[in-house]
Description:
Layout: E1 6-9, E2 13-17, E3 20-24, H1 26-36, E4 41-48, H2 51-62, E5 70-73, E6 79-84, E7 92-95, H3 108-116, E8 119-123, H4 130-140, E9 146-149, H5 159-168, E10 171-175, H6 176-185, H7 192-202, E11 207-211, E12 217-221, E13 224-228, H8 241-254, E14 264-265
Parallel strand pairs: 1-4, 1-8, 2-6, 4-5, 8-9, 9-10, 10-11
Antiparallel strand pairs: 2-3, 6-7, 11-12, 12-13, 13-14
Helix pairs in contact: 1-8, 6-7
Amino acid sequence: MSEKKIVCFGEVxxxxxxxxxxxxxxxxxxxxxxxxxxxxxELISRVGDDELGTELLExxxxxxxxxxxxxxxxxxxxxxxxxxxDDANEVTYKIVQPVxxxxxxxxxALEQLVEQAEVFVFGSLAARQAGTRETLYRLLEHAxxxxxxxNMRPPHYTKEVTKYLLEKANLVKMNHHELAEIMTWxxxxxxxxxxxxxxxxxxxxxxxxxxxxxxGALLCTNGQLYRAPGVAxxxxxxxxxxxxxxxxxxxxxxxxxxxxxxYALPAPRGHW
Length: 272
């Protein structure tokens, strides 16, 4: 058994904000938070052989993470995302493509890393282009416990790919907007708890977690529904908030921590 318990796969990039640039990408953010929570983690990604790529590698290492599995490519530039934070509660993104993380290459070292990990975390954004998508699909065949962090950024996803990733997953995390859209693909419009239970049964998922902004989060597992209420804070922006939430959820899951029984709910018929 390798000591590396969690592998995060996908994009690492620069978020360009009005105040300047900051490192980002959901897999990277989740990896940093997991490391800060004391869990051993590795990051699989790709940056360009450019100044922005060098800066990213240095930043990753400054956070205590290794960069052994962050590839460097000469043919495509390091990823950049332009974030619009005019609405602090609903940040929008312009995601440049193609970039280095669209071309993560498969090799035996990645396969071995994933085989030895307890958890493999991946998202839908990294699957937008054939190169990284094919690598992801191959690695999924070697993963033990697969955590799908849904990240539907128009126009960087398709129904077909998202459904395939749901089929492969064991635990899925998404926000309430993504839940609503996915349910329309199946011609179903229902309340959140019923939708979550339906997804869990349809895709044989061990858990479905839905974040609901200021309303907190819902977790459906083992036929039970749990609710964590929102915590009132002053919102500057929501960038990365779901990533820190997922890291905390995974820490509790790996530690065998039971969801708070105080929030165990019977699946209601109406909206909550």
